[in-house]
Amino acid sequence: MVDSSDPLGTYALLCDVQHHVSARVGALGEQCLDPGLVVYVGSAHGPGGLRARLAHHCRTPTRPHWHLDYLRAEISILGAWVSTSADLLEHRWAAALRSMRGAAIPAAGFGASDCTCPAHLLWFARRPSAERFRRALCAASKGCAPRYLGPKRLSSFTGIAI
Predict the structure, then answer these.
(1) Does the structure show a pLDDT above 60 at 153?
(2) What percent helix, strand, coil does the chain show, rounded to 5?
(3) Full-prediction pTM beyond 0.90?
(4) Residue 21 has pLDDT above 70, yes or no
(5) What is the pLDDT of residue 12?
(6) Does the structure show a pLDDT above 60 at 81?
(7) Which of 61, 125, 135, 154 is most enclosed, with most CB atoms within 10 A?
(8) Terminus-to-terminus CA distance in the chain, angstroms?
């Protein structure tokens, strides 16, 4: 479990796409996802930190704010990798995951409207092993080891059943 009450940090949210999804995503327009695993990388260095941001993503929002909100009703949350490092790791994590074998960018600019990254949403036809994720994220984390929160731990951390 993450220790402090409102830790700040970086997260990689793992989501299951069971069927073909097509949705209008704000200024990005119509976006499509094929079945598989999508990983959404973000940071939570503002009010409420990781707990508030992950709780937001675990709900189906009534008014979309982040790009992921537009897809949330069509995908299932599986868990999240988190780091409570004060370092801004979001872009490094997104780059590390993009370089993993089998990774693809399903929607250019998704989750990256405030930076120059190609996207912060990655798609995999098959879910890579936890060890592959751990290695990729550790290498990009400047020595800070990320932790995996599976469904039960993520629900406990956020107070939201997933």
Answers:
(1) yes
(2) 30, 25, 45
(3) yes
(4) yes
(5) 97
(6) yes
(7) 154
(8) 16
In percent, the amount of the chain with pLDDT more than 90 equals: 84
Is the pLDDT score of 18 beyond 70? yes
The rounded distance, in Å, linking the Cα atoms of 66 and 74 is 15
Alpha carbons 138 and 83: distance in angstroms, whole number: 10
Identify any residues that bridge with 28 across adjacent strands, giving them in sequence order: none
Quick check: 66 and 42 in contact, CB under 8 A?
A: yes
Nearest in space to 19 (alpha carbons), one of 36, 35, 31, 8: 35
User: Number of H helices and number of E strands within the chain?
Assistant: 4, 7
Query: How far is Cα 66 from Cα 82, in angstroms, rounded to an integer?
Result: 18
Are 95 and 109 in contact, with CB atoms under 8 Å apart?
A: no
Query: Taking a C-beta distance cutoff of 8 angstroms, is the pair 72, 129 a contact?
Result: no
From the CB of residue 27, how many other CB atoms can be counted at a distance below 10 Å?
8
